[in-house]
From TrEMBL:
This is Lactate utilization protein C. SUPFAM superfamilies: NagB/RpiA/CoA transferase-like (SSF100950). Signal peptide: none annotated. Pfam families: LUD_dom. InterPro entries: FTHF_cligase-like_sf, LUD_dom, NagB/RpiA_transferase-like. The lineage of its organism: Bacteria, Bacillati, Actinomycetota, Actinomycetes, Kitasatosporales. Residues 100-212 form the LUD domain. It comes from the Bacteria. Gene3D superfamilies: NagB/RpiA/CoA transferase-like.
Length: 215
């Protein structure tokens, strides 16, 4: 018996006592939970996002659309970045003043090659205020998942208020579950049994989020 047959056999046994006319899971599970906690204006929701991002040790910046190229140039220079990974659909004007070498997002790129890249700049799919979470879905302005997991420094641009939602249920409504979703709540971190925090184990050690208004 193959592993596949063994697993399917277990599933059949688990479902053996389920009536044939049982309601589908999507209908049987109540969906009457709160869609968001409390009532907030749009500016208050954006402020909550910034607060929770910072609580997760992300570095938060705010700027208007016309200030973004200058800000990104300053952030990369402050980090000492000599190279920056660039998704194929990143707006060209974002990095127009940056001197760092552009590293294009390629399927052939290996982890060791990306590990030598200093920074990556991306957009995002949606940002969740209540959890301080940024979601990437592999769209052209975000690129392949690997370019946001291997380099040590990630700058993520969030368009506000268009890409900001209050809660996870609202975020899920905007996302395609068939896409490669990456949920980011602060820089990568883990703790050992003695609760010593180590950053940069599963992704970027430094996460900077730019809340971009007027875009």
């Amino acid at each position: 018996m193959s592993s596949r047959e063994r697993v399917l056999g277990r599933v059949r046994r688990a479902l053996a006592d389920v009536p044939g006319d049982a309601r589908p899971y999507e209908e049987a599970v109540a969906r009457d939970y709160l869609r968001e906690h409390g009532r907030r204006s749009v500016p208050e929701t954006v402020d909550l996002l910034a607060e929770n991002l910072a609580d997760y040790r992300a570095i938060v910046h705010r700027c208007a659309d016309g200030q973004l190229p200058e800000l990104l140039t300053w952030l990369l220079a402050a980090h000492g970045s000599q190279s920056v990974a660039v998704p194929p659909g990143l707006p060209p004007n974002w990095l127009k003043a940056v001197d760092a070498t552009r590293v294009q997002d390629r399927a052939a790129s290996t982890p060791p090659e990306l590990d030598r890249v200093d920074s990556v700049v991306t957009g995002c799919a949606v940002a969740v205020a209540e959890t301080g979470t940024i979601v990437l879905d592999g769209s052209p302005d975000q690129g392949r998942r690997r370019i946001t997991l291997v380099p040590d420094h990630h700058i993520c641009v969030v368009r506000v208020p268009d890409q900001v939602v209050a809660s996870v249920p609202q975020a899920l409504e905007r996302l395609d579950p068939a896409r490669p979703l990456t949920w980011i709540s602060g820089p990568s971190a883990t703790s050992d049994i003695e609760l010593d925090r180590v950053e940069g184990v599963h992704g970027p050690r430094t996460l900077e989020v730019v809340l971009l208004s007027g875009s």
